[in-house]
Specification:
mainly alpha; single chain; 13 helices
């Protein structure tokens, strides 16, 4: 399987009625196409966050051999991490032109780029094309489900779109069929449960996730919210404090603190 961007878009309904979108990235080692180029070493730099060094090396490889598909693909990953989404998309697309077998990975990553740009229609299309090329990829099913989910309940909406919720549910379930207990998909389903008012079912899924990964921010935040919604205040407070111990982004922390204050009656 080729290297993919993993975009963890998870709606978490908060007491104030808003939503959060969480972006997480990870990947798998690339396929080495040219034994004279140490792509493993460059991938190690990418994994370590040394993006400028990786960029310099990859640009030098392409300058010497513009037809190196692996270098274009890896440069796309590097540029994504550097925030240059337009250039990242160009290099992903060029890698696909040079190596059509990259269709699943390239369309997946183009879907991530489209989502980051707010182009949900293109994100759906790209994730669909990725699944056409590789229907067994749990990450892409998850990403497509997340795209449906975030569209189902946009900021300011009074009620979620039931048809989009169903599409999201179907994709998360597909992901779990391929990768049982996939935590992102379980949190996605829990968010759907929350939007439908099925809080006890959401709690069950989220507790399953926390049993696997006690520090997963998305699950902790959603679980704290779910406990609060069913009146389990002590568990809500403990879970939200555990969430704050993960040093979340400031906006998340503020929302958690607000919920803690409301639960404490301050």
């Amino acid at each position: 399987m080729r290297n993919r961007l993993i975009l963890g878009i998870l709606i978490v309904v908060v007491l104030a009625g808003g939503v959060y979108a969480v972006v997480r990235l990870s990947g798998k080692a690339p396929v080495v196409e040219n034994a004279t180029v140490d792509f493993a070493a460059i991938q190690s730099e990418i994994d370590a966050g040394d993006f400028e060094s990786a960029r310099t090396k990859l640009e030098a490889i392409i300058a010497a051999d513009e037809t190196n598909a692996e270098a274009h693909f890896s440069l796309g990953l590097t540029l994504f991490n550097l925030g240059d989404y337009t250039a990242a998309g160009e290099h992903f697309t060029r890698s696909l032109q040079l190596d059509p077998e990259r269709a699943a990975a390239v369309h997946h990553n183009l879907g991530v780029l489209a989502y980051q740009s707010g182009d949900m229609a293109t994100a759906e299309s790209e994730f669909g094309l990725a699944l056409d090329a590789d229907p067994s990829d749990a990450d892409t099913h998850y990403q497509l489900g997340a795209t449906y989910l975030i569209q189902a309940y946009p900021m300011g909406a009074v009620e979620p779109d039931t048809a989009l919720l169903q599409k999201a549910q179907s994709e998360f379930e597909h992901a779990l069929e391929i990768a049982p207990d996939k935590p992102e998909a379980l949190v996605g389903l829990a968010n759907i449960d929350m939007l439908r008012g099925e809080m006890e079912q959401a709690i069950g899924r989220l507790e399953q996730v926390i049993a696997q990964d006690p520090a997963m921010r998305e699950a902790l935040f959603a679980l704290g919210r779910s406990y609060a919604a069913v009146g389990r205040a002590e568990e809500a407070r403990a879970t939200l404090r555990q969430f704050l111990d993960t040093a979340p982004p400031a906006m998340w922390a503020e929302q958690a603190q607000q919920m803690l204050a409301e639960l404490s009656g301050d």
